[in-house]
Design brief:
3-stranded antiparallel β-sheet; alpha/beta; 13-stranded mixed β-sheet; about 550 residues; single chain; about 40% helix
Length: about 550
Amino acid sequence: LVWPNQDIFKHGILAGFHATFGTAENLAKFLMYCRNKGKNGWPNVCFAIWESYCQRNFNMGSDLASLFFESCRHICLPMKETSAWDDRYAACTSEDTRSRMRDKVSVNAIHLALYMYSQNVTLMQTQKFSLRSEEFPTDRKAKKKSIDVRFIETFLSDIIKILSEPDSKGLPLDKQTMTIPIIASLGIMFTVYTENSIRPLHEVLQQQVHASVCSYSKLTQTFNTQQVRTWLLDHMHANPFTSKRCLMHGKTVYQKPGRPLRRSSDISIENGSTNTLTRCRVTVNDHETPKERRLLAMQYVSRQISVLSPETLLNHRVHVTHCNDASIYLLSSMKCISVKQCSRTTLVTGPISGTLYLTGCINMRIICIARRVVLRNCHSCRLYLLTPTRPLLLAGCNDITLAPYNTFYRGLDGHLSHANFGVKKNLWDRPASPMCKEGDNNKVFQKLPPENFHLFSIPFNTEGTTTGLVNQLPREYEESTTRARDRVNKWYDSVQKCELSETQTAQLAATLQARFHDWLETTGNHKEIESLIRLREKS
């Protein structure tokens, strides 16, 4: 089976931003330009060349060019490689040195061209724009397919056209050939599932059963372009490991006590429909998926604290949907997290080696360490972040508050090491909002005032050796936490200096406890205390 790479088509698309400059002709010219630039442009193109080309040929500003470049780099390269560069970048003491490092950083030119072309998938949603003269598919069978599959099937010829070798220009597809490095680069667009594992595209096509179909020549190590296109279309399939399937057929980790489950078809989160079953449920699909695509799905967590063990979450993709008035702790190393249609919920995560993607969320508090953070159609959310990339605020976002990461748990250092996550570079305060009109940034996001910044304490113990924050707080936030700590110490000193009797001490304690209970009732935080008590009783 072959399906579009979800890291690109789900988490890498700048939804609402129409990259009309990313046509096949323009990107083919870009790759030709890269080849002519020698080692600085081929096979890896440095940022300085990309930035210059975008300004001259795409009429694209430096900020937007950097956004696409960094997104492609962090999606296509392994975490270990980018983390090492991020740490060196953060260690630079001058802006001039950082600028030179930024100009020299590179990414595979073909990966960048394919990533730019994939941005056009957003145009499939309206079916009002065509990258070519042919019509979009309108038959019922085509409409049932996912947008990314329809995009690949419709424009695969154009994708291959971008990758054409210079000496093959003008030849029909059945006369063109593709080398193994080109096939390997094309592989970032697809996930190939064979023999119960995920394999690179070029390795699968070299297997004997597929090599003959694709006219593979061991002598020249090339494939026939037309045969490769036909093979991809014949094996194209929708992603079989979706969150919906996980909820219907996965193994249950937790479900809220109550009436028995109805048939599995009652569970539906597609298009926001819930049918008649709206119970809390957490499931995993480890029993039927390869380790690279293990998924944990969580839905309808409401008015409770949800804590999952690190072993259950380790190296999983996590999908959280339709949760409200809850506190969710996902303290492990994970591949990516998708949060959809949640409200009034606190989400605390361990290191995410991929993307944290929030869609349609309202009044959320997010405390996370993530390689990429993307928000779309989110309102009144507060995020405490440790991320080496700029948070992306796409169309429909407003009143987003940003602050540095403010918590820790004992197993955090071990999870950071497992994910190869560096903590020296943190761009939490440099969000990118490419769809925002100039001058409207203040309506979309703002930094949390230092006087409103507080450290977050995780209300239970975990195994590990971490005893404090792993990130360095900005000076103004560090001073704010110091002042808060000093106020508490001053209170204790004042009480001790009063030399109260036992009766007076008991009266003071009773007064403080009464005031604390009033505060819990007024703010609604008593619900969280009650949930913690129930959680402790169960454990």
